[in-house]
Design goal:
Layout (H helix, E strand, L loop, with lengths): L2 E5 L5 H11 L4 E4 L4 H4 L2 H4 L9 E4 L2 E3 L2 H12 L13 H26 L9 H21 L13 H17 L5 H11 L2 H6 L5 H6 L2
Parallel strand pairs: 1-2
Antiparallel strand pairs: 1-3, 3-4
Bound molecules: glutathione.
Length: 213
């Protein structure tokens, strides 16, 4: 087996698991509970020099940025599934929402989550926390508009952009107590019905997963 995913339940690596499951791509899964001290150790930094999850190895090749991991798996192993070609009319929307889930949402959600945990070095100022929450609120407003008349973010149906966004919605609900409009909640509930996502969340307490809708 060439692909090895280093994963911590509930973290961004859920997206990597989800895409691998959607594509049915064989991989070896190495699961670690979150442990800041261990992640900072030389042993773990030999796996991921950034001391974070996720990390994907393809043989000796290491990829650590989540969206890059998704793109790598899609382009190398996906045979065009769940992605959009550059000459397709939905290409711009695809890229936009693929990245919105991480850069426009998860990064801010992670800051607010770390702040709420009140642990150094993740504590920020109240003003910065409010700023992060406001960024997520704006992204949710755009999502609300985009989902009018759509089940998934693209007209063609489910894509990797939904994986990016779906995880951001789960992350915000679980870690910052964010609640959603009926339309966004309906979208999240449709994503939660996907067997590949259920598998990617199977190592979390199932009451918490059920509470997501
Ligand atoms: N930009 C990275 C962020 C990765 C990241 O921050 N991962 C979190 C888990 S979701 C982590 O391992 N945090 C540990 C830490 O920052 O100490 C990506 O998109 O993969």
């Amino acid at each position: 087996m060439t692909l090895t995913l280093f994963h911590t339940p509930g973290t961004r690596s859920v997206r990597a698991r989800w895409v691998l499951e959607e594509l049915n791509t064989p991989h070896d899964l190495k699961t670690f509970e979150y442990d800041g001290e261990y992640f900072a150790s030389d042993e773990f930094r030999a796996i991921n020099p950034m001391a974070k999850m996720p990390a994907l190895y393809d043989g000796k090749e290491l990829i650590i940025e989540l969206i890059a991991i998704m793109q790598y798996v899609l382009d190398r192993y996906g045979s065009g599934q769940l992605t959009v070609a550059a000459d397709d009319p939905e290409f711009a929307a695809y890229l936009q929402w693929l990245h919105m889930g991480e850069s426009g949402m998860s990064g801010y959600i992670a800051t607010s989550f770390g702040h709420a945990a009140s642990v150094d070095p993740y504590k920020v100022t109240e003003a910065h926390d409010q700023y992060c929450r406001y960024q997520v609120e704006k992204a949710l407003g755009m999502l609300e508009e985009r989902l009018e008349g759509r089940t998934y973010i693209l007209d063609r149906g489910f894509s990797a952009a939904d994986i990016s966004l779906g995880y951001a919605l789960i992350f915000a609900a679980v870690c910052t107590g964010t609640t959603y409009s009926d339309r966004v909640q309906t979208y999240l509930s449709a994503l939660l019905k996907r067997p590949a996502l259920q598998k990617a969340l199977s190592d979390l307490p199932q009451e918490a997963v059920a509470a997501l809708g």
